[in-house]
Amino acid sequence: MKTMIYAIGDVHGKYELFEKLIKEYDPKIHQLILLGDLNDRGPKTKECWLLGMRLVKETGAIYLRGNHEEYFLQFLQNPEAWYESYLINGGKETFASLLHPGAVEEYSPTEMALMIRSRYGELVDFLCERPLYYEWKNYLFVHAGVDLTKKDWRQTSSRDFIWIREPFLEGKNQTGKIIVFGHTITPLLHGDMQTTDLWFSDNKIGIDGGAVFGGSIHGVIFDEKGIVQDIEYQNNDGEWIG
Prior knowledge:
Layout: E1 4-8, H1 15-22, E2 30-34, H2 45-59, E3 62-63, H3 67-77, H4 79-98, H5 103-106, H6 109-119, H7 121-128, E4 133-136, E5 139-142, H8 158-163, H9 166-170, E6 178-181, H10 186-190, E7 199-201, E8 204-206, E9 216-223, E10 226-234
Parallel strand pairs: 1-2, 2-3, 5-6, 6-8
Antiparallel strand pairs: 1-9, 4-5, 7-8, 9-10
Helix pairs in contact: 3-4, 4-6
Pfam families: Metallophos
Protein name: Serine/threonine protein phosphatase 1
Domain Calcineurin-like phosphoesterase: 5-203
């Protein structure tokens, strides 16, 4: 077992920031954990996904499923039903990245789904296999959170692992675990829509700094005693959209 965890929050197509964080990754000592949502909203979903897949296959990284991976897979299963909601939640940028800019004006949802399945079969299969959580010592890594009303957090529904917000954020953590999660951006958790720092409360650690919205991306290194280093890169591409 590696002596440290290196957890990276929601990337959302911000490939250059993702690359910068990966430069700090040492597979000899770090167990890399990607907390999901590598896709949508940002411009380079394809590059982020291919890098994520390579890191899993070549270095044993853990890539957890996020709600945006789920959105994408649901779209592929039922393109006409999921198209509108997926489009407004970042899917348009993903279609442009996987196919080409303007694809949504040229093709129907069903046509785009067929082209994506045809061109990216290996990637789609890979995304379908992503786990929902990862345990390490007294830490639990998950995309969104867990159902804190369950006696055993492992009984959390698949949907809640990737979608839950207020019941997890406001509930009492009696799991015995320090829960590290993404999904809900830390500027929202801090309550000011400005602060991109890590968020700490009740043995919960939020690490999604909202990079795609003009905030920051975090790569957090843990050992069994706690946080060793928080590597934070600001997104300087544009203004904060909070």
